Structures are given as structure tokens and as C-alpha cells.
Amino acid sequence: MSPQRRMRDASPRLVEMHNLHKQKLARWEKKKDAEEERELMRIKHDAEVALPMRIAMKAQTNFDPHEVCDRLYKEYKHIQVNRSILQQKFEDEEEKKLQDERTRPRPPAALPKHDIDRFYEGVMDWENKRRQNLERAQESKIHQERKELDLVGRNAKMRTLEETPWQRLHEDAKKRSQDLKDKRGEEEQRMALNMVGPPKGRRGANLDHINKLFYESEARARKNTEQCALWRAEEARKYRENARKAMSPTALSRKGANSKLSELPAHRDPMLLKNQEPELKMNRRCEPLDPMGHVLLAINAAAAQRCACAPEDPQSKGLAAVGLSLKEAMKIYQMAAAASDGAKKGCSASLKGMKSQRLYAEGQLMEEEEGFRRCCAPDPIRQLTDDFESLFTAAQRAQAALLMTFIDTPTNFQELDKRWPAGSKHSCVKAAPTAAFAYNPGPKSKQAACIKAQVQFGPSEGARRFMHLLDLARISLVFKDSSLLRTGLEHILASFEVVQVRNHYQPQIQGLLGERWVEVLVVLKDGLTFPMVCEIRLEEECFFNARMQA
């Protein structure tokens, strides 16, 4: 992004700070020029004053070479003597500092504390706090009781002895005070028995109680370990049962009752590596699922979970019918991946190592791992409105504006549909010169947009689900190989306002079919009622042909 465009899109506060800095810089330059001019005038004045003196000294100077050499030699020797004196003084100071550092007494190093000492200190702190809180509560209660007794006594003096209700209150207060004292004594006795530190008037720690607390903590730790082991065993049993239910019936009937796929391979569940049964250990040598079977099982489990039914239900068994088509599609994508890896060695590997990027609060694209290290969250990416009709209408103009950025000769919106209709290619790509051609898939249809919003964002966002549709306006750029794709990505980053780069060449982001592409989300503003997020898809020609064929 160019500096002028950044300044135009910056916040008013940033623009104001930039202007203030510019004014400050101008004042500093002006002051610097004035100082330089004054310095030049001073030098010129000193030269004019000193000129007659230099002329007079030149007339009186003796130009005898022997005297000049003697004078220069004496000056040199004087300089050497002063330098040696200063060097000796510096060495003496350094030697004195080093001697002071060596003779300075150092504080003794703190001895490492044992676990039982730390445990004892923690219990002692807890006991002291508890004792202080209890004494404070008792003192507040005694103070309140004394107030009540004083009030009862004053009222009793004012009345006659025949008023039995006040006497009864006085007796009750005395009884409560006595009960409080007895309770406090019992509490002090119980604290003395359970006290870790020394009681009042004694020295040393209560070692018996310390050992008791230590053994109790060890017993609790053993109990927690046993409960965790039982929980892991129960989870392992449930996992195996769910794995057997999720297996495809066709895979179970492939080799009869002794099918190798009747048990899930142990390497799929890291939690079961320590608690495997012997038969699961033997199944490590069994053949794993083929890619097509893995994809079918994943689709079957996802559909069953969305439809709230078991994988072996008749509705879920119908997914096995797509096995042949899915196998052919995976074969096509495998051939495309082989062609991509064999085109230029190293180019595909560099794309696989490139991390995805997001736009953070600083206004710059950063790798997601870099953002995590800086402990900052990326800005949310969504459309500015949740009204589907207005959003779909704006997507039509955004699609046209996105296509016009990749055409060499300018045109209007009416001629664009005739020149570059949906589903066609355009060979001359302006914003990405290294691209072989650009493909216009057309804006996303209403039905597809509604289905995607309802399935992906409906459960969490509700009525605001349409704000997360970021591919209503889209375009595909197709390149000959991965090196040209990397260059084209740099051109896109320099030409558009990019908010996210998602690299599907990374193994952890690739889909089940093995398709690879780079997805770039950009913001378009020119010619639109409000800014809109659009999608630019960068892919190799082999994967584009595989997608069209599959």
C-alpha cells in the first residue's frame, strides 16, 4: 500500500499527529539554520580580528629549521609525557576498583529450601491468619456483648427491681457471655491440637501433625491418580465403541468378520497409547484406511452428527453410494498434486512453508504466530451490514468493480457482462502480470449464500449470520506453476488493501481431497456505497483444471 493511500485511509487522530510532527520539524530546521548563520558570522568576525595579529606574528617568526624542529620535538615529548601520566592514573584507578570488588564482603547465598520446609511455612502462614481472624471475630463479639450489658445495666438502674424482663435480659446476656468464653476455650484447645507451629509459651514445631498432614496429602494424590486412571479407561472404552459404530458397513464386509478395519488403529488416539489392550497393539500392523475410505467416514460422521442420527442408520448409509465418484475426484487431485510438486523443485515447498497472515491493530499484515507472540488479537473481518438484500445488491457492483481491476482497457459496468461473462476466462491480467489467465466464477448465488450462512454461522450468530459471507464477490487467478503464483501474490499485496492471506498449501489447512490454493481477502471502496470484503483465489493451472474436471 502506498504512503499516500495509507495517509488517506488513516484515522483523524493519526493525521493530526502527523501534521504536528511536521510543524515541529519545520521549526527545528529554521532554528538550526539560524544557529548556523550566527556561527558563520562569529567565525568570520574572529578571523577578521585575528588577521592583523597573525600578520604581526608572521613578521616576527623566526623560520630557522633547526629551531622549528627543536620546538616541535619538545612539544611532542611534552604530549607523550602527559599521555603516559594520564594512562598510569587510569590504570591505578582501575586496579583500585578491581581490588575493592575482590575484597568487598558478599552476602551469603540463600540455601535451597526443602519441600517439607516450604510446606511447613505455608501451613504456618495459614494458621497465623486463621488465628488472627478468629481473635478479631471474638473481640468484636465480646465488644458487642459488653455494649449490650452496659445498656441493660443503665436501664436497670433507671427502673425498679420489680421489672423482671430487664433482669431476664441481663441473665441471658451473662449466659451468652459464658457460652462464648467456653466456645473460645474449646476452639483454642482444638487449634493447639492441630497447630503446626509452636503454641504460646513453647518452642519447636508440632512434627506429629506435620507428618499427619503430609501423609494425608499423599493419600489424596494417590486417590486422584487412581480416579484419573479409571476415567481414562472409561474414556478409552467409549472411544472404541464409538469407533466401531462409525466404521463404514462396506469396510466391515470387505473381509468378513475378521476385517482389519473393525478396530480403529491405535495411532489415531494419543490418549490410548499408555492404556492399549493387547488386541489394539496387534492392530498397529494392520493396513490403515485408504484416503477414499477416510473421506467417506469423515463425511458420514459429520452428516450423522448434523442430522442427529447414528452412522449406521439408513439415511447415513446412502453416503456409500458416492464412493466411486469420490474416488475418481481424489485421483484427479492426486495427479494435480504430483504435477505441482514436479514442476519446479523447491517452489511448492516454499509455499508450504509460508504462514497465513491477518491484519492486526497496528494496521499491518502479520503472521498469526507473530501476533500470538506479541499477545495482540487480530481485527475481526466481516461485512458492514447484516441485511442480506442490500448486501447481495452491493455484491453485484463489487463483483464488477473487482473484475475491472484486472482488465487492461477501461470499460463500464454494462459492457463488462458482454466482454467478460460469468464462467469465462480473461488472458490479459493487469494487477497480476505473471498470471496465465483470470477466471470469473460470477457472484455467489442467493441460494448458496443463504445455505452457507445458515449452516456455518447460523447457530452462533443468528440474524447477523450474513455479515460473515466474505466471498459474495470473487475472482480466480490461475498461474502456470507455484513460483509464478508466489510472485503474483506479491503483486496482489502491493495493489490491494489486503486484510487476510490464508495459505491452503500448508498441510494442516488442506482439505480432505488435497486441493491447494491461496485465498486473499481484500477491501474494495471505489464505486461502492460502502466498503466490501471480496475474495481473490490464487491457484495453479493443474489444480484449476482438476477442480473444473472434478
Report a brief summary of the structure:
The protein has 550 residues and is α+β, with helices and mostly antiparallel strands.
Sheet bearing the most strands, described?
8 strands, mixed
Helix run count: 18
* Beta-strand percentage range: 5-15%
Tell me the number of strands. 8
Characterize the quaternary organization of these chains.
Answer: single chain
- Spans where pLDDT lies below 50 across 5 or more residues: 250-288
**Helix-strand topology string:** HHHHHHHHHHHHEEHHHEEHEHEEEH
Cα-atom radius of gyration? 43 Å
Percent helix, as a range, is: 55-70%
Question: Cα distance, first to last residue?
Answer: 37 Å
| Helix/sheet category | alpha+beta
Mean pLDDT: 77
The outline comes out as flat
| Strand neighbour order, sheet with most strands | 2-1-6-7-8-5-4-3
Description:
With 550 residues, this protein is α+β, with helices and mostly antiparallel strands. Helix content is 61%, strand content 7%. It has 18 helices and eight strands. Strands 2-1-6-7-8-5-4-3 form an eight-stranded mixed sheet. Helix 4 (115-158) runs antiparallel to helix 5, helix 9 (291-307) packs across helix 11 (323-343) and helix 11 (323-343) runs antiparallel to helix 18 (541-549). The longest helix has 49 residues, at 12-60. The protein starts with a helix and ends with a helix. The relative contact order is 0.05.
